[in-house]
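Handout, section 3.2

Students often ask what a structure token actually looks like in practice. Rather than define it abstractly, here is a full record for SAM-dependent methyltransferase. The first block is the sequence as you would receive it.
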Amino acid sequence: MTTGRNLASQALPGGGIAGIDIRTPNVARMYDYYLGGKDNFAADREAAERVIAAAPVTREVARGNRAFLGRVVRFLAGEAGIGQFLDIGAGLPTRDNVHQVAQRANAAARVVYVDNDPVVLSHARALLATDERTRVVLGDVRKPGDILTDPEVRSLLDLSRPVAVLLVAVLHFVPDHEDPYGAVRALVDAMAPGSFLVVSHIEHRPELATAAKPYDRANAPVVPRTFDEVARFFDGLELVPPGLVNVRRWRPDELVLSTRLDPDVPCFGGVGVKR
Ligand SMILES: C[S@@+](CC[C@H](N)C(=O)[O-])C[C@H]1O[C@@H](n2cnc3c(N)ncnc32)[C@H](O)[C@@H]1O
């Protein structure tokens, strides 16, 4: 983790943290732990270790997902010519954040990060929103209308022009009864033709059921889905080759190929374009 400022720096004398629930495992901080970051607490680490014990592949899933995000953003900002990004469920700042990857390919790229976790918001504001082309907004993917009408989103992104909406490792925190499909449809409806939707999502595998259990006590449950269930998020869109695949198989770069990483991580990823 290279944020240069971790959660411990906000600790109060009594051991608590202002406005932060450090006793409930938190999905953003558990993911940070999987990635080797320091922005997590004992409750996050304990829950994360239980997940890893039940599914030793977990860290590989996190790394594979993060690498997928990097390759997708490079493709979108470069080859696909996308200059604006709406990253919902952005997560705690880490290495190669979306605006950094995008702006390497297109210096003018604009990025709005959205997350429903106040901890993510404060860290992201301090570390990510460092230029006039990057903003951080509190928002919930279950309330797409609020995100789409948010004044900060509207001030930076022109939704009458192509945009990339990133829903990377976030929809598996939204159970069916909270209507993730309706939320994605509302976002897609608001996208101009030529826009892209990016989704990555934990795969449902019966043998990994125990690994999902610790999330029942976290700030959000995890809801793994089958290939067909994840594919439904792309309804009405055309999938960019190679389609919806294991994240490690989405346009693997030299790093993936040369290190002979096991491609079989239980996480799907895909990119759809709106025609
Ligand atoms: C596993 S992290 C993924 C971070 C980043 N997208 C990535 O793939 O590297 C999931 C993030 O989604 C956020 N999140 C969970 N539920 C959400 C919701 N309903 N609306 C917005 N963000 C949410 C969490 O706070 C966390 O930061």
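Discussion prompt for tutorial groups: The first helix runs from residue 27 to 34. How would you have guessed this from the sequence alone?
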